[in-house]
Amino acid sequence: MNKAYLALGTNIEPRLTYLDDAIRLLEGQDTIEIIKKSSIYETAPVGYTDQDDFLNMVLEIYTDLSADDLLTVCQHIEQELGRKRVIRFGPRTIDVDILLYNKESRHSERLIIPHPRMHERGFVLIPLHEIASNLQIPSLHKTVAELLSNLPAKDKSEIRVWNGRIGRRMKAFRKLKGYTQIEFADALGISVNRVGAWERGTSQVPEELLDDIAATLHIDKNELYG
């Protein structure tokens, strides 16, 4: 069984739907098992900047596929979801990129592993750090944590956890329950600062709480994201 890390990115609406569809198509492969998912992060475009912000995340997977066959699957998913390569670094419905595959370091016309420039990109390193901070990057001989710490602050400052409209929904949920922020924090056994961060959309809300919010507000869970 091989371990790989995939980076997903999208900046064409409905962005969350494209991420969800890519994950669903990956999960539908008998040869792929998703082990970990990072939070979703919103990031400004890099390279070609006259376009909308991206949603990015990283997946850790196990797979029976070779690296080349995994690339073929990723490209088929991109095509199925309407990816068009018109402008370099331009808008896209979905990117599904192989960042790492086992401990391999390779450079062919079709595939470069580790993914080129991943060590320079906060929108890759930050979600990767969330799920694999101590992972050693082949050929670079540094961990994800070390690479992230070496990244200039300006390359990290505008990358933020994305929660869509969750903050507003969180506030509506709390008020529906009749709680102040302090009372809500006490009921959950957490700090009031954490509740405030949830309502501002700057901190990730646990999935089980999102399920409860969606059920209470009688909405589909996807509506919480935007």
Quick gist of this model?
This protein has 226 residues and is α+β, with helices and mostly antiparallel strands. It is built from eight helices and ten strands.
Topology:
Blueprint: E1 2-10, H1 15-27, E2 32-37, E3 41-43, E4 54-63, H2 67-80, E5 95-101, E6 106-107, E7 112-113, H3 122-132, E8 136-137, E9 142-143, H4 144-150, E10 160-161, H5 166-176, H6 181-188, H7 192-200, H8 207-217
Antiparallel strand pairs: 1-4, 1-5, 2-4, 3-4, 3-10, 6-7, 8-9
Helix pairs in contact: 3-4, 5-7, 5-8, 6-7
Enzyme class: transferase
Protein name: 2-amino-4-hydroxy-6-hydroxymethyldihydropteridine diphosphokinase
GO molecular function, one term: DNA binding
Structural description of this entry:
This protein has 226 residues and is α+β, with helices and mostly antiparallel strands. The chain folds into 2 domains: 2-155, 7,8-Dihydro-6-hydroxymethylpterin-pyrophosphokinase HPPK (Alpha-Beta Plaits, 2-Layer Sandwich), CATH 3.30.70.560; 165-225, lambda repressor-like DNA-binding domains (434 Repressor (Amino-terminal Domain), Orthogonal Bundle). It has helices at residues 15-27, 67-80, 122-132, 144-150, 166-176, 181-188, 192-200, 207-217; strands spanning 2-10, 32-37, 41-43, 54-63, 95-101, 106-107, 112-113, 136-137, 142-143, 160-161. The strands form 3 sheets. Strands 1, 2, 3, 4, 5 and 10 form a 6-stranded antiparallel beta sheet that branches. Strand 8 (136-137) and strand 9 (142-143) form a beta hairpin. Helix 5 (166-176) packs across helix 8 and helix 6 crosses helix 7 (192-200). The longest helix has 14 residues, at 67-80. Keywords: ATP-binding, Folate biosynthesis, Kinase, Nucleotide-binding, Transferase. One of its GO terms (molecular function) is ATP binding.
